[in-house]
Amino acid sequence: MTASASAWVLVIGAIAATYLWRGLGVALSTWIDPDSALFRWVTCVSYAMLAGLVARMMVMPLGDLATVSLAFRLAALACAFAVFFLAGRRVLPAVTVGFAVFVGLAATAPPALQP
Amino acid sequence: MLDALGMPSLVLLASMTGFGSLARDAGLDLGMALATTAGVWGLPGQIALAELYAAGAGAFAVVLAVALANARFLPMAVSFVPLLRQSAGRRRGWLYLWVQLMSINSWAAGLRRFPDMPPRLRLHYFVPFACVCMAAALIGTTAGFFVLGSVPRPVALGLLFLNPMFFAVLLAALRGPGVAQALLIGAVLGPATFALAPDWSLLLTGLFGGTLAFALTGKAGAG
Fold it and tell me: Closest residue of A to B159, CA-based?
């Protein structure tokens, strides 16, 4: 019971911490003109953050994904990008092929035992 | 809404099964896992929460880690909400509710679609889109909580891989002044800063990478 209550405190704390950023963003956006240089800078910052996050998840995954070799992860991603650009920038075929390549690679060479 | 029913929902369904099973492993119950998906609504923060809870970290450390992992929502909201302002009309207070629905999916879809869309229709696009995404994510969380353990291991790994891969393709689909530069610089800085200072990685990447990309394209973008 106590363990469950303390877990809920964490869940609610995490929700509040995340919403703080969103709410602050709405408040700040009142003062920012979408055509201004400041707006373009903030957009650049969010692109860089997202790209950095995705690259980190790809190159240094935190969980189970780390048991699959980096070469497999990058090969599957390269296939997805290749299909994306060859198939007229469509997302569905790209992600489907990338997923299939990844599962195929992970199946042919079973990863090391879990830590 | 049709946009959302396709790929974004499928990927959310699949990637949130990964979170559902992680949450179960970490010792959270289903109610907590669902509350986290709906309330935090950002996978990196959700994963930080589940992993740190499993590791028995203190409340302050957990909340701080989640806040840092999800700090991107501040610049995302600042760059997104002005595009909805006209659509919201006089009911601007609702923007504080709608912003909770914003995720990388709906953000990217909005930035891609809004320029060709009359401003007053944008909320009618965004809210159903985001609700479909949220529903798919909650179903995925539940499914992962109950079934992921019975899926063959390569497929389970593939579901975990789906998330970063989909985001990467989604980002590659975006265009605009400075976008390519910001994405490339960010992609290099992200892992580099993570190796040096994991907690501050995203803030450093965003501030340095974003500013550099902005400076590089300042003149071109203004024209």
Answer: A99
